[in-house]
């Protein structure tokens, strides 16, 4: 075996270096996609966790409360036994005016005593808080990490402009932290300010985001939790930083789980590419194999030889893919991080590390993928009889198999997948996996024969349309049906993916837009935070009166949303003045009706829940929702179930009076302002702006603008998915390139003859481009029905499982339109190198090629 | 039993010994508590005020200067203290208030920051934190009260040509807490005035900091060190306060040592 | 028709290999010439130079008045398209194209309209006697038939120069004879200049003239012996 490998395979690889590299490329592409996605995903999740951990410092426990922890709590905590130190914290993400520096995590701490909690690395030669008194006395004081300061060109005493809720503020560096422990959190993009300055800066009032607690030696964490919980009551959450990190990680991990699908997908495409490459390699070396067999090699030896080659290529490809993946993952991570920040208000640090685990997985994957891909070709190579191998020219057209059973099996599998999706036998991730697996295999079985049929039918048409290049392309495509159908398969699967996800995103967007038209009916929205899920600033409740007093204002509603944990999920509890709200919005009821909701919410302290809340938690009209309030647990009976898209985790709505009574917190996220008929909202907007200016941050949007902004948030939610779609296209692109390069390489002799027959380089090149185009378009044709099925699956069972919302189907015309423009371009680009190569084939060499 | 009997005896002995202290320092070693008590009695004043120049020199020799006005009412364990920064302009108005608490608890301390328009209480956990970036911590800002320590005479030593009593003081921690394991006090024999303090942190053996009081003057009949220097022996930095315009026993308005006054714009 | 002056062709590798070491010869229009010689004597190289598939290291290759040595790749392609056609030992047909399409290929490449091409294909197929095989795939034909398809493909462009590389090499002697007769009759009817590289004495004797090569030089040039013309 070693002998064969060394002499036969190695010399082949050396002689056909380009082709060997192509085979390798198949593995590399697959593994790169997998490892980049996985690395970015892990980095994001771990980054979030480790940021929580690092920022926590020596804190054993963190006390939080929905809406913020009142200042007075700190004194209460200090007086409890077993507590060594407490420290208030406010956390906020801001963006420097120079956006390229990346988001900054602002941590407001009480620097007077925070050293019990966190190590700032001031001690020693290389670190210094320049003047602590100055730091405290000046509200613009901030600390930065050395690393960030270097990037931003900051020195002690110089200032940096950052965007905070009330506008752009200059903060002055009063000290630099050494990169260890705490200062490594959030990738070093850290800004430490005084916690009281942070209250002011971020509208926290007299509240902190949390209080970090360090226990006395000898007090266990469990004891600490018990002690604090008993002393503080259920409205406060007492958690270890690790658990808090875990919860955030879980939220984000759920969100990025969509990437697993893309990873799997990329890998299967990688397998195709490998399969293709090995197939071609077997065909090309048919004579060598025949000679081997004639010389007495057993079929098993031949098979093993090919598998050994696959093994080496797999290992090599795995390693290379791993490296390339790490390079790509950084960009991926940035995009994922932006999405999670927009959607959940959680940001991780932006540093990617290639972990040994991912490395191992990637290598293994490359290996398995190449072995799987090479298995079939290796088997067929082993079955080559010596005489058959020496027969010239005959083998290429002879690769047909019985297609009947194959089509039947494929159709049956697809039907199975559809049935499974419609029934509720399997749920959640398992459902997605099963359906995709069954459907995928079914499609693979179907696409081969179908693509061949389509190509055969297309042949004459091509010849008619392109008299000179047409027959050449058609010959190339049909000449090696396995290669062509393999490429078309990869293409069709990619496009199925693109159309499916595109359709799903489109439907979601449309549904939410319709919902917004029903709900967002007031004229102006006044809010302090650009981020919808993380209030950067809250208005005092009294601002309502000020706005209402302005001329032209008809009604003002105060919307406040908190995001408490409910049965391990972060739901949304929204409150607003229901009496005026219900006069202007149109709810779509799943249970109950307008009157029951009105009566229940306004007069009976009941709540309304969203449909996805009901489906998730099994609580509908007649049930009660138990919610933790500062005064203890309160049960709110459900008056109505509405279709609403405020939260993908489920939402509960209360009348504002009820909320105020139980939560004792009158701050407001958004003021919904309706103007009197005939009044220009623009003028009212100016009046509100003038009224609030200098006191509060005010982002005032008209109805249209507000809807656009929510649209942007939805887009952010799907940004990850959109990357996946791009990835799919990228993989398809690479698939075409590889296939064409192999096609050209394989047909060198034919191209030589064509040239001898008078074909011009341009003609040959054009035929290669045409070949690419046909591959892409046939792929698209086959992907149309499959994509539609996939979209329906995403919109129905998958969407329901992950968001609780079922989306009505909406055909992705716009995606199709984009594809019809993009595909020819992509295939044109993909054909570039192969076409040039084909055009440059030397006739004499080509003819002597065999 | 013995202790009860001994106590009055001690007093007698101390009284007998203390009379000739100034004239006959070479007599047998007196009791540390008695020395400290006598010192307190001798130097006690009702009020004190001065304006101080604060100089912090860090290890690298970088110098930061500040100016403050200091007001004190009462003495040792029952003293009230207000410091108001006057210089440089960036920190002008920053205030520090220390008020005794009943019993033997640590005093309450607040720092006021005009830019935030609010005071913040110094938590017991923060007693080791540096007082506004100096080598003093918040505990050092409390007036020394020997009653909160178990004291014992360690011997005698001559500092700068002045013979001194060396007294070890170990915090009793009855209700109060200290960050120190032990203080070593150097009391000048002739005037019973504290001229040096070595501070050993809990869990440590060697002193972490050293306070030296020098430039001792007699102002309005009271001895006072016009220069205090705290050296952080580990960090290699030191902080000097020089006292100017010192006056004693001036009546202080009662409202001066209140939170209300601390948070008043420009309140002294 | 064809003039070679001091043509040298050498390949640079680890050591320089001289395939043709200074060949001067001329072939008149309408001649039918056989080139023979042992393996490695430079036969195929000579043929490739004549067809503009390759360029000489030095010397001139004048075909129909054009010096191919001075043309670039595209120029030679265009020249080939108009003046030269090929027949190969291994036929080199496109396996997935029907006979008709295979024959039409050069016309299609030259941009001849479909209708006209079709007519010309019919004509040459009749000429080689394959009119009833027009819709078969190459796989479905015998070796002789395949070579006839190749000849038809060579004829369809009406190129004045036909280069054949061992046209009978893969055929048994009977089929070989048929092919030679076909070439002979084409030569007679069309006046096409034919240059044929062969190992086969019988094939050589079908020609007017025989050029023998040895070690890259012309060893002998004269009338073919025992021709059955």
Automatic annotation (TrEMBL), chain B:
Residues 77-264 form the Uncharacterized protein TP-0789 domain. Keywords: Lipoprotein, Signal. Residues 1-28 form the signal peptide. Pfam families: LolA_like. InterPro entries: TP_0789-like. The keyword Iron does not apply. It comes from the Bacteria. This is Outer membrane lipoprotein-sorting protein. It comes from Geomonas diazotrophica.
């Amino acid at each position: 075996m070693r002998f064969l490998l060394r002499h036969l395979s190695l010399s082949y690889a050396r002689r056909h270096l380009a082709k060997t590299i192509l085979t390798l490329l198949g593995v590399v592409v697959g593994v790169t996609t997998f490892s980049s996605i996985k690395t970015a995903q892990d980095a994001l999740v771990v980054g979030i966790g480790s940021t929580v951990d690092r920022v926590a410092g020596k804190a054993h426990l963190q006390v939080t409360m929905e809406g913020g922890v009142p200042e007075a709590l700190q004194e209460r905590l200090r007086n409890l036994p077993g507590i060594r130190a407490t420290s208030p914290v406010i956390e906020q993400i801001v963006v420097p005016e120079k956006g390229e520096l990346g988001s900054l995590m602002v941590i407001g701490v009480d620097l007077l005593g925070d050293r019990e909690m966190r190590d700032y690395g001031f001690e020693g030669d290389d670190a210094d808080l320049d003047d602590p008194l100055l730091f405290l006395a000046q509200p613009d004081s901030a600390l930065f990490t050395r690393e960030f300061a270097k990037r931003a060109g900051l020195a002690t005493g110089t200032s940096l402009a950052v965007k905070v809720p009330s506008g752009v503020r200059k903060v002055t560096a009063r000290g630099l932290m050494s990169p260890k422990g705490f200062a490594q959190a959030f990738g070093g993009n850290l800004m430490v300010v005084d916690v009281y300055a942070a209250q002011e800066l971020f509208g926290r009032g007299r509240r902190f985001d949390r209080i970090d607690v360090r226990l006395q030696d000898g007090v266990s964490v469990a004891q600490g939790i018990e002690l604090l919980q008993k002393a503080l009551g259920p409205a406060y959450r007492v958690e270890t930083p690790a658990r808090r990190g875990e919860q955030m990680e879980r939220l984000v991990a759920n969100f990025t789980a969509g990437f697993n699908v893309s990873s799997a997908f990329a890998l299967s495409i990688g397998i195709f590419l490998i399969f293709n490459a090995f197939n071609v390699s077997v065909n090309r070396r048919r004579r060598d194999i025949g000679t081997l067999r004639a010389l007495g090699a057993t079929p098993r030896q031949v098979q093993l030889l090919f598998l050994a080659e696959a093994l080496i290529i797999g290992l090599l490809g795995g390693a290379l893919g791993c490296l390339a993946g790490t390079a790509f993952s950084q960009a991926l991570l940035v995009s994922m991080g932006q999405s999670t920040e927009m959607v959940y208000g959680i940001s991780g640090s932006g540093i990617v590390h290639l972990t040994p685990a991912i490395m191992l997985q990637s290598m293994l994957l490359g290996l398995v993928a190449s072995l799987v891909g090479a298995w079939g070709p290796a088997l067929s190579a082993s079955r080559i009889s010596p005489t058959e191998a020496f027969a010239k020219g005959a083998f290429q057209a002879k690769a047909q198999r019985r297609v009947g059973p194959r089509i039947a099996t494929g159709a049956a599998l697809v039907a199975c997948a559809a049935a499974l999706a419609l029934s509720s036998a399997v749920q959640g991730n398992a459902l997605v996996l099963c359906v995709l697996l069954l459907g995928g295999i079914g499609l693979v079985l179907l696409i081969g024969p179908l693509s061949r049929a389509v190509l055969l039918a297309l042949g004459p048409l091509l010849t008619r349309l392109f008299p000179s290049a047409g027959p050449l392309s058609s010959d190339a495509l049909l000449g090696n049906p396995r290669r062509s159908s393999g490429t078309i398969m990869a293409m069709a699967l990619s496009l199925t993916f693109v159309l499916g996800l595109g359709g799903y995103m489109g439907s979601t967007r449309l549904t939410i837009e319709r919902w917004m038209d029903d709900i967002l009916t007031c004229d102006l929205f006044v809010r302090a935070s650009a981020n919808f899920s993380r209030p950067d600033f809250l208005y005092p409740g009294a601002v309502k009166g000020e706005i209402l007093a302005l001329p032209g204002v008809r009604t003002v509603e105060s919307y406040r949303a908190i995001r408490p944990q409910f049965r391990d999920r972060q739901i949304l509890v929204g409150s607003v003045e229901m009496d005026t709200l219900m006069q202007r919005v149109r709810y779509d009821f799943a249970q109950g009706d307008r009157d029951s909701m009105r009566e229940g919410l306004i007069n009976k302290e009941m709540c309304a829940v969203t449909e996805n809340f009901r489906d998730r938690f099994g609580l509908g009209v007649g049930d009660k929702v138990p919610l933790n309030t500062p005064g203890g647990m309160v049960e709110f009976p459900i008056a109505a179930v509405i279709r609403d898209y405020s939260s993908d985790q489920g939402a509960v709505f209360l009348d504002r009076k009820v909320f105020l009574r139980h939560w004792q917190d009158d701050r407001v996220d958004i003021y919904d302002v309706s103007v009197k008929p005939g009044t220009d909202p623009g003028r009212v907007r100016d009046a509100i702006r003038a009224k609030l200016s200098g006191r509060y941050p005010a982002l005032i949007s008209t109805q249209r603008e507000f809807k656009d902004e929510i649209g942007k948030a939805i887009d952010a939610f799907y940004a990850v998915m959109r990357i996946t779609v791009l990835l799919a296209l990228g993989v398809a692109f690479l698939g075409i390139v590889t296939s064409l390069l192999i096609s050209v390489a394989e047909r060198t002799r034919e191209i030589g003859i064509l040239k001898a027959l008078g074909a011009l380089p341009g003609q040959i090149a054009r035929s290669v481009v045409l070949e690419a185009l046909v591959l892409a378009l046939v792929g698209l044709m086959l992907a149309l029905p499959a994509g539609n099925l996939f979209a329906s699956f995403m919109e129905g069972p998958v969407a329901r499982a992950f968001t609780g919302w079922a989306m009505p189907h909406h055909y992705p015309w716009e995606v199709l339109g984009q594809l019809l423009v993009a595909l020819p371009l992509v295939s044109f680009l993909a054909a570039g190198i192969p076409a040039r190569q084909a055009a440059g084939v030397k006739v004499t060499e080509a003819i002597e090629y065999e | 039993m013995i202790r009860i009997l001994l106590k009055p005896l001690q007093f007698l002995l101390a009284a007998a010994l203390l009379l000739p202290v100034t004239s006959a320092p070479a007599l047998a070693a007196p009791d540390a508590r008695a020395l400290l008590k006598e010192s307190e009695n001798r130097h006690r004043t009702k009020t004190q005020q001065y304006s101080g120049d604060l100089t912090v020199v860090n290890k690298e020799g970088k110098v930061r200067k500040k100016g403050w006005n200091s007001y004190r009412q009462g003495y040792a364990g029952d003293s009230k203290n207000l410091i108001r920064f006057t210089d440089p302009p960036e920190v002008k108005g920053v205030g520090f208030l220390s008020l005794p608490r009943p019993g033997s608890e640590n005093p309450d301390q607040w720092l006021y920051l005009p830019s935030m328009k609010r005071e913040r209480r110094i938590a017991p956990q923060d007693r080791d934190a540096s007082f506004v970036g100096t080598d003093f911590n918040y505990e050092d800002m409390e007036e020394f009260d020997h009653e909160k320590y178990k004291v014992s005479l360690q011997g005698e030593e001559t500092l700068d040509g002045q013979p001194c009593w060396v007294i070890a003081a170990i915090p009793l921690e009855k209700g109060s807490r200290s960050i120190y394991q032990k203080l070593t006090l150097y009391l000048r024999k002739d005037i019973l005035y504290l001229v040096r303090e070595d501070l050993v942190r809990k869990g440590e053996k060697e002193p972490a900091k050293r306070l030296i009081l020098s430039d001792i003057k007699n102002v309005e009949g009271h001895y006072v060190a016009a220069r205090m220097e705290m050296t952080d022996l580990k960090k290699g930095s030191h902080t000097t306060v020089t006292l100017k315009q010192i006056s004693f026993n001036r009546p202080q308005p009662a409202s001066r040592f209140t939170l209300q006054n601390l948070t008043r714009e420009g309140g002294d | 028709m064809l003039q070679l002056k001091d043509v040298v062709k050498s390949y640079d590798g680890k050591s320089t290999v001289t395939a043709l070491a200074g060949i001067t010869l001329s072939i008149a229009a309408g001649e039918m010439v056989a080139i023979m010689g042992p393996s490695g004597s430079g036969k195929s190289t000579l043929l490739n130079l004549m067809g503009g598939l390759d360029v000489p290291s030095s010397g001139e290759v004048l075909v129909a008045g054009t010096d191919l040595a001075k043309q670039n790749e595209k120029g030679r392609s265009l020249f080939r398209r108009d003046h030269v056609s090929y027949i190969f030992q291994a036929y080199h047909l496109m396996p997935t194209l029907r006979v008709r399409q295979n024959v039409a290929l050069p016309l299609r490449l030259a941009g001849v309209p479909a209708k006209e091409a079709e007519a010309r294909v019919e004509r040459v197929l009749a000429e080689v006697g394959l009119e009833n095989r027009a819709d078969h795939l190459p796989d479905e034909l015998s070796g002789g038939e395949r070579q006839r398809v190749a000849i038809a493909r060579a004829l369809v462009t009406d190129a004045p120069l036909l280069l054949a590389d061992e046209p009978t090499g893969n055929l048994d002697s009977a089929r070989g004879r048929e092919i030679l007769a076909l070439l002979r009759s084409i030569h007679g009817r069309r006046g096409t200049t034919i240059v044929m590289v062969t190992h086969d004495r019988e094939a050589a004797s079908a020609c007017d003239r025989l050029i023998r090569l040895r070690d890259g030089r012309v060893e002998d040039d004269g009338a073919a012996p025992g021709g059955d013309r």
